[in-house]
Amino acid sequence: MAGHVPVTIDLIRAAHARISGHARRTPLLGAPFLDRIAGRRVLVKAECLQHTGSFKFRGAWSAITALGGDVRGVLAYSSGNHAQGVAYAASLRGLPSVILMPADAPAIKIANTRALGAEVVLYDRATEDREVLGAALAKARGLELIPPFDHPQVIAGQGTVGLEIAEQARDLGISQAEVLVCCGGGGLTSGIALALEAEAPQFRTRTVEPEDFDDVAQSLAKGAVVTNPLRAGLCDAIVTPAPGRLTWPILQRLCGPGLVVSDTQALRAMALAHDRLKLVLEPGGAVALAAALFLPEQFSSNTVIVTASGGNVDRDVLLRALATGDTHADS
Amino acid sequence: MAGHVPVTIDLIRAAHARISGHARRTPLLGAPFLDRIAGRRVLVKAECLQHTGSFKFRGAWSAITALGGDVRGVLAYSSGNHAQGVAYAASLRGLPSVILMPADAPAIKIANTRALGAEVVLYDRATEDREVLGAALAKARGLELIPPFDHPQVIAGQGTVGLEIAEQARDLGISQAEVLVCCGGGGLTSGIALALEAEAPQFRTRTVEPEDFDDVAQSLAKGAVVTNPLRAGLCDAIVTPAPGRLTWPILQRLCGPGLVVSDTQALRAMALAHDRLKLVLEPGGAVALAAALFLPEQFSSNTVIVTASGGNVDRDVLLRALATGDTHADS
Questions:
Q1: What CATH number is associated with residue B88?
Q2: Which one, A86, A301, B27, B190, has least CB within 10 Å?
Q3: Which residue in A36, A277, A315 is closest to B326 by CB distance?
Q4: Same domain, yes or no, for A236 and A252?
Q5: Residues A221 and A168 reside in one and the same domain
């Protein structure tokens, strides 16, 4: 049903009107030390400062506020940023939320999702199918499923990041830029690309993915969807097998070429964001900054704008990133 | 000379007009997990996201842009946040800056201050007097001294934080709050207090200091300036012997009672800001948040607004803070 609503700039503008005063308008940050490493101006859209620590709150709020009045609650499956975004957006709207999480998910993530107001339903990864379970639960309890990216109102919500980037860049007098987006299923990237097509058509949107999970870069290069095997990776927030049914045509029309960084580059970008911007990033939220800093030969514009899309990082991974070096000593 | 300009709300408003588009309008952040610990709403004015990682850029910009046209450069002595703020503000204005730093300051801080555009002049703490040296240099080279806090235009620049807090709180519908400010010499606190007196008179400004460096809290309690011995402390950014000549009358008239936190509380607040707000704070920039979280019995209002005044922390201190525990596990 929702899948039939076309994703347009008007849908994004309407989402922005609903989000205003609820999602944070996150700052666009920079530091001379980062510019020096990149050899050009680097601006960072700090979505790690969004409610629940990632941009996912925007899509969740957009989708939930677009539901009809007779909805009794929402359902999502995710143990990550989308779960937290949906749980918190639902609780602010006074709607119950049910999040399906694998029983072997870290206890901390389960506790946090509960603390944000969700009812967590655990399932056994080995013996249960979360989609079947989710569909049954949704039907039995009258819940609306909020998918992580392949949903018009979710894409529209993420696209509000693009509206803000266009406006903030304009305020800074920037007329030309490449905009790098940390890309998993493509919800954030396609939303931003649509927003920039309308509001800053001279900007180019480019995807950034981790090595070995570059399904979008490969798909863009080939002109057809290429699928990665689904497996675990350091950049867990953006490890997806393929672009979505709704996101792919938008990515194909507006984005590319895709960029790819190593895990080590993502960790180094985390350390630099930490020391130079005072921001905590997670690996999947740092790949766009990593590309801006460490792949300078890939860009032709004087300004590169990157999304720092999330900051929900476990302590051990953060310490690994900080162990890549005290970047204060680099300059 | 500059010392004779009275510090008024008009001076702060004029500084705000000069700063607009140059200093960042930093966000006012919060997280449900912090509210739960504090037992009330906690909002964090994230000045660690300001240029050079602390609010000091505001006062530096305000003072430098208030100078007459015949100034050939500026001078400051500081190895910390004020040095960086002055160096960067001067470089953006195309003015040379000279920063006097002790020769035994960390090499990284010297390198960073140079990288921000300053000429660093080293002196020997044991044998040279920096004030005598600074006065001689200023005279010989026609440089204007920018003091760290006891200067009307510096106080006015820091006061712009207060104008923004008043406006951001109004946007959130907050009509009553205690505003906690990390307090060293009192430049930030007195500026904020003056701004709130005019723009949010129902708000109360309160100082927060580290244990054993509570000269302002003691002065406020006694009604007369009390002096601490000057020595090193974990919260190095706000370790000062006494409130200033210009700041004290403002603090006495508008602020208090003063609050005091332990170093351990400051470190725990750093860890919570890190995990829950995705912000890197330094100990001296975390004491106000520490008071909000760990001294709940000290407050009567439903909302406490805290300044997170800086994030320039050495890696070893940051790791000490993170070692106080993974705060994700608290909830």
A1: 3.40.50.1100
A2: A301
A3: A315
A4: yes
A5: yes
Residues of B in contact with A33 (CB under 8 A): 115
- Listed residues B87, B111, B145: the one ending a domain: B145
User: A151-161: string of b/e by CB count within 10 Å (b at 16+)?
Assistant: bbbbbbbbbbb
Residues A260 and A182 both lie in one domain: yes
Amino acid at residue number A124: D
Q: Which candidate, A136, A40, A45, A55, places its Cα nearest to that of A88? A: A55
What span, in angstroms and rounded, lies between the C-alpha atoms of B193 and B8?
11
Chain B nearest CA to A1, separation (Å): 34
Sorted by sequence, the CB contacts under 8 Å of residue A53 that are 6+ apart come out as A81, A84, A310, A311, A312, B278
Average pLDDT of B87-94? 96
Which residue among A29, A108, A111 places its CB closest to the CB of B49? A29
State whether residue A68 sits within 8 Å of chain B by CB: no
Chain B interface includes A315 (CB < 8 A): yes
Distance of CA B97 to the CA centre of its chain: 21
Among all residues of chain B, which has the CA nearest to that of A281?
A: B278
Count: domains in chain B: 2
Is-above-0.90 flag for pTM? Answer: yes
User: Using a CB-CB distance cutoff of 8 angstroms, which residues of chain B are in contact with residue A171?
Assistant: 21
Name the E strands within B153-239. 178-182, 204-210
> Looking at the structure, do residues A309 and A231 belong to the same domain, yes or no?
yes
Smallest CA–CA separation between B326 and chain A, in Å? 7
- Mean pLDDT lowest among A109-118, A197-206, A207-216: A109-118
SS3 assignment, position A190: helix
Q: Which residue of B has its CA nearest to A28?
A: B24
- Which of A327, A253, A240 minimizes the C-alpha distance to A290? A327
Write out chain A residues lying below 8 Å of B36, CB-based: 115
Domain boundary among A145, A177, A200: A145
Is A278 part of the contact surface with chain B (CB cutoff 8 Å)? yes
Q: Are residues B97 and B227 in the same domain?
A: no
Residues A261 and A117 in one domain: no
Residues A134 and A177 in one domain: no
Determine, for residues B322 and A315 on separate chains, whether the beta-carbon distance falls below 8 Å: yes
Closest residue in B to A116 (Cα–Cα): B32
Contacts of B43 in chain A (CB under 8 A): none
Give which of A150, A104, A118, A163 is closest to A243, Cα–Cα: A150
A261 and A194 share a domain? Answer: yes
Instruction: List the domain range (segments joined by +) for residue A137.
Output: 57-145
Whether residue B250 contacts residue B198, with contact meaning beta carbons closer than 8 Å, is answered with no
CB A74 within 8 A of CB A62: no
Greater confidence (B156 vs A229) lies with: B156
